[in-house]
Design brief:
Length: 127
């Protein structure tokens, strides 16, 4: 059984958040929206604030999930991160942009059960 893209994406974000928690990250916010853009996960890794984009794919037949984080998408994430920092986080802090790729390997009763995770820290930088 396959999932519709929205469900797959949501479950991929849940899997990424759980994976980050297991790695010692502290989740600050999920699905932070600014205007029409969104950051999937905002988390602390020790003393670094991480803005995490999650891309989930059922297969890699049409490309690896990391390929979907285009330069345009990076600009949108950076703009949204700046808005978050200005409006909601009023102290100086080290920041970085990460990408988590989730590739589905198995489903059970419509739920993502098996998957591969690839986490790229410092995947891109704000200029």
């Amino acid at each position: 059984m396959s999932l519709i893209p929205h469900d797959l994406g949501r479950q991929g974000e849940d899997a990424a958040a759980s994976w980050l928690l297991c790695k010692g990250y502290r989740i600050i916010r999920r699905n932070y929206r600014y205007r029409r853009n969104e950051i999937d996960i905002i988390a602390m890794d020790d003393r670094t604030l991480c803005f995490v984009e999650v891309k989930t794919r059922a297969t890699i037949d049409k490309g690896h999930p990391l390929e979907a984080v285009t330069p345009q998408k990076q600009k949108e994430i950076i703009r949204t991160a700046r808005a978050f920092l200005c409006m909601e986080y009023h102290e100086e802090i080290d920041c970085r942009f990460d990408v988590v790729a989730i590739i589905a390997k198995g489903y059970e009763k419509g739920r993502l059960k098996e998957f591969d995770v690839e986490h790229i820290t410092d995947a891109f930088w704000a200029e």
